[in-house]
Amino acid sequence: MTEQRITATYEIETAFPLDQAAATMAGEQSTGTFVRVPGETDELREAHAARVEAIEEFGDVAAPSLPGSGLPKDGGDGRRRRARVVLSWPLSNMGPSLPNLLATIAGNLSELKAFSGLKLTDIVLPPAFLDRYQGPQFGVEGTRRLTGVYDRPIVGTIIKPSVGLSPDATAEQVRVLVEAGVDFIKDDELQADGPHCPFDARIAAVMRVINDHADRTGRKVMYAANLTGDVDEMLARHDHVVANGGTCIMASMNSIGLPAMKQLRAHSRLPIHGHRNGWGMLGRSPALGMSFIAYQKLWRLAGIDHTHVNGIDNKFCEPNDSVIASARECLTPMFDPPHQGCEIIPVFSSGQSVRQAAPTYAALGSVDCMFAAGGGIMAHPGGPAAGVRALRQAWDAAIAGAAVEEAAKDSPELKAALGAFGG
Amino acid sequence: MTEQRITATYEIETAFPLDQAAATMAGEQSTGTFVRVPGETDELREAHAARVEAIEEFGDVAAPSLPGSGLPKDGGDGRRRRARVVLSWPLSNMGPSLPNLLATIAGNLSELKAFSGLKLTDIVLPPAFLDRYQGPQFGVEGTRRLTGVYDRPIVGTIIKPSVGLSPDATAEQVRVLVEAGVDFIKDDELQADGPHCPFDARIAAVMRVINDHADRTGRKVMYAANLTGDVDEMLARHDHVVANGGTCIMASMNSIGLPAMKQLRAHSRLPIHGHRNGWGMLGRSPALGMSFIAYQKLWRLAGIDHTHVNGIDNKFCEPNDSVIASARECLTPMFDPPHQGCEIIPVFSSGQSVRQAAPTYAALGSVDCMFAAGGGIMAHPGGPAAGVRALRQAWDAAIAGAAVEEAAKDSPELKAALGAFGG
Fold first, then answer.
1. How near does any CA of chain A get to the CA of B248, in Å?
2. Helix (H) or strand (E) holding A5
């Protein structure tokens, strides 16, 4: 039987020959020592050393992307090679443990002097991780079942202003949004349990509105209640959401960490909306950190059901090809059958309007997503209900393969939206 | 009564006028919305908006440090200004919650298009956080009490090779090290509970050696057992360490997250050695992420007792001034009396030898630190015991204000170390 291995891909920049640089990475993150010690036998290296699986050179850059590396005194040769390097480790080095995986694939590597750039771009994990991690509990199908939305994106929005509304004022905002016809509403990531808007009071007030609306219409809007906090707080808040008839919880992934997410997932009876705020710190530099492709795999295993991928022509720095690659990855199985694939719902947001429906559908090739708009709904000239109708019309057109301008001829709300949200 | 506020300092790079850029930061992380909504009243802004406390311009740079920002279509003016910006928030926005603090001070900020660089460099928190977080349980004094080491650095070392030793082979390494006279030994961050070296078996084997040595000599060496894992695992492993007479636990901070650390601290009866592996991802870029100064404050509140600061002339990329600033910060109170200061022990490591004792002492101005050496002990020509003696002699000389070369005249181990570990 072949031992299960963990594989990680990096993009590096180095002033050393590539085979030497890759060997440094492998050594530092497994059996290597600066000074050879007696215990480091050949058998030990054979069984536990990380392996360099592939090196693909990209060409040189003129100047180092990060400081502190490859100086003449450290032996660099002045060139700055870029390359993709693939390493693998035997699972027996760390076992199927996400926290310890992280120390191995993303620990001290990025501080090594041999590298003026080092970014983790992908990981491939053996299914043994599914013995210890539950993966998403609801995913695409479970979220569709709870929202009652099929064959089109789940249209979402966020409560604004982010901070400052009282529980009752929040519920009033929610009333406007559910009456406008949205499928999904989320708290802002800045709003969790601040003294001016306590979690329990906010959720109680908001769920009264959502439950009343569901009683009248038969449609229960999904509300992602931001329960980010310490572990005991999150578990108690989850129970409060359940007790009030809520159908979703939200947590900021970077704020809580993988072990807390695992614990929340084990406890939860609701889908987990994983908010990626802070990912820019890890992901924005091309020379450092971690791609969202690698990052989201860790959190899917830990149990999230939805995550944010930004949106086409977003108001942040992320380019469209990166947004779409992230979104497609969320829908791509992590493991082959018979194992679960851990697919989750990508959430498009940030400056989204009727203009982004067609290009998003064309690039994603699927309607399995959330499409969240703030101003795109609230700032519609005909009001929020017209804003929601316009978004649905834009997606209907995209799915039917019709140009949005053509569709607008028969859809006054869409026409007004195209006028309001400039091309 | 003045409301307690949270203050955060950033270094930014922007193609927009600085007052506009700072207002964008404050707006995005508090009451701001891209489209003004009805709920955003003047009263709400007055009570909850983040405040720009200070802007200090540094001058322009030629090219953007990060991509995706300030393009002509986004309204940038072509200049790239660098500046320090200080923002503050009322505590009532998020309450004294570290996870929610993180979403506020380090959430989506670094992805904003207005910035081609944005790094969090410091935070100042109100003492209300001490109502919810316990801070270090042992700190400097408690660690000295458990090790029995006073008036000099605690001399430490790490078990190598990092990965691959069985529990018994690990214990044999520990035997060599305790007999050599070290005060402190730590697991490698790659070694936690892998199938080839299970935690429980390793700790039992290692503690037999340490307990035997303590019975014979009266000196109990502190062993930082790396219990990094999921929450239930960490709590159980802590209990196993206690049951085996251990006096320290270690966890990789980035792997476990703040809520898990809080839970571990609440449960723990032992000092927590906080390992910062992976910090390079957050800290190495001058244009992105978080300084260690800001970072370590979060973890001190959450409850660590020791943390790594690299070392002078280390084998990683960090410059010496950054190393020393981090170390001094660990010893600087976070809160004024009567509140606890949450001081912790800085751990110097990475390529440390007798050569670094004097410059480290001169720069730190204190002996309240751990000084960890691997090769500097194991590769001493006279063996590990001579290696430990040489390190202690080097520190004795530094504390006495004597030049190391002078002190070596009366100290054969120090003389041999100076020969072996070139200047």
1. 19
2. strand A5-14
HSE-CB at B356 with a 13 A cutoff on CA atoms is 25
The ipTM is 0.96
Q: Is the pLDDT of residue A110 over 50?
A: yes
Question: In this structure, what token pair is assigned to residue B20?
Answer: 């506009």
Q: Domain extents for chain A?
A: 5-131, 139-420
Mean pLDDT of B399-410: 96
pLDDT tens for residues A288-299?
Answer: 999 999 999 999
Q: What is the pLDDT of residue A31?
A: 82
Longest C-alpha distance within chain B, in Å?
79
Interface contacts A/B by beta carbons within 8 Å: 352
- In the numeric block, the tokens 């009264």 are attached to A208
Helix (H, G, I), strand (E, B) or coil at B311: coil
Give B-chain residues touching A68 at CB under 8 angstroms. Answer: 284, 316-319
Exposure letters B399-418 (e unless 16+ CB within 10 A, then b): eeeeebeebbeebebbbbbb
List the structure tokens of A58: 């990209």
Q: Which amino acid is at B54?
A: A
| pLDDT higher than threshold 50 for residue A1 | no
pTM beyond cutoff 0.95: yes
pLDDT digits (tens, 9 = 90+) for A297-356: 999 999 999 999 999 999 899 999 999 999 999 999 999 999 999 999 999 999 999 999
Q: Please say whether the beta carbons of A136 and A41 come within 8 A.
A: no
How far is residue A41's CA from residue A154's CA, in Å, rounded to a whole number? 57
Nearest Cβ partner for A285 among B285, B319, B351: B285
Encoded tokens for B385: 């015991």
Pairing of strands A154-158, A51-60: unpaired
CA–CA–CA angle B221, B222, B224 (5° rounding) = 140
Q: Which of residues 149-208 of A touch B (CB under 8 A)?
A: 160-165, 169, 172-173, 189-190, 192-196
Q: Which of A160, A174, A229, A166 is nearest to A196 (CA)?
A: A166
Answer whether A372's CB lies under 8 Å from A186's CB.
yes
Tell me chain B's radius of gyration from C-alpha atoms.
24
**Which of B31, B162, B257 lies at the smallest CB-CB distance from A256?**
B257
Residue B259 DSSP one-character state: H
Could you list the beta-strand ranges (E) of B91-226. 115-124, 154-158, 184-186, 222-226
Q: Is B56 helix (H, G, I), strand (E, B) or coil?
A: strand
Q: What are the beta bridge partners of residue A87? A: A8, A52
Provide the 10 A C-beta neighbour count for residue A311: 29
- 3.30.390.50, 3.20.20.110, 3.40.1670.10, 3.40.50.300: CATH of B139-420: 3.20.20.110
Kindly list the residues from chain B whose CB atom is less than 8 angstroms away from the CB atom of residue A278. 102-103, 106-108, 110
Domain B5-131, CATH among 1.10.1040.10, 3.20.20.10, 3.30.70.150, 3.40.50.2000: 3.30.70.150
